Amino acid sequence: MSAHLAALSCREIDHLPFGYIALDTAGKIRKYNRYEAALADVDQDWVLGKNFFSEVAPCTQVREFEGRFRDFADGSIEASSLAFDFVFRFRRGHQNVQIGFLRADGNDEIIVTVRRLAPPPSARPSAAPRPAVF
To answer: pTM for this one?
Structure first.
C-alpha cells in the first residue's frame, strides 16, 4: 500500500477520501492533498516546503505525534507503518482523527494519512435523556 500511495501524483492525491501529507524525514512537506487542506483550513499551496510541525500544525509538537514521527523516521520504530488516534486542536474546535505513518519504499519520505473520527460521546450533542432500565 505504501508504494502505491507514494507513487501518486499531486493531482491523484486530491481524489483520496482522507488526508494525505508526504513529509521528508525532517518534517518538510512535499505533498499535501485537498482533503487535508480543508480539514486544517489552510491553503494547499502555501504549506508546500514548510515544516509540518513548526509552521503548519504546531499542535502536533507533542510526544504523541512528533515524537512518534521522529522515532518512525529515524528507524527506532522498525515497522513499515504505524497508526494511532490523535486530537487536532484547531482554533475553530477539536477534531478526532486516526493518524497513519507509512514508509515510502526506496526514499526518505514518510506518508502521513489523516482520517476523521466521530467525536467522543461526551462531545456529541446530547439526546433527550432515556429512562434507566433495570
So the answer is: 0.84
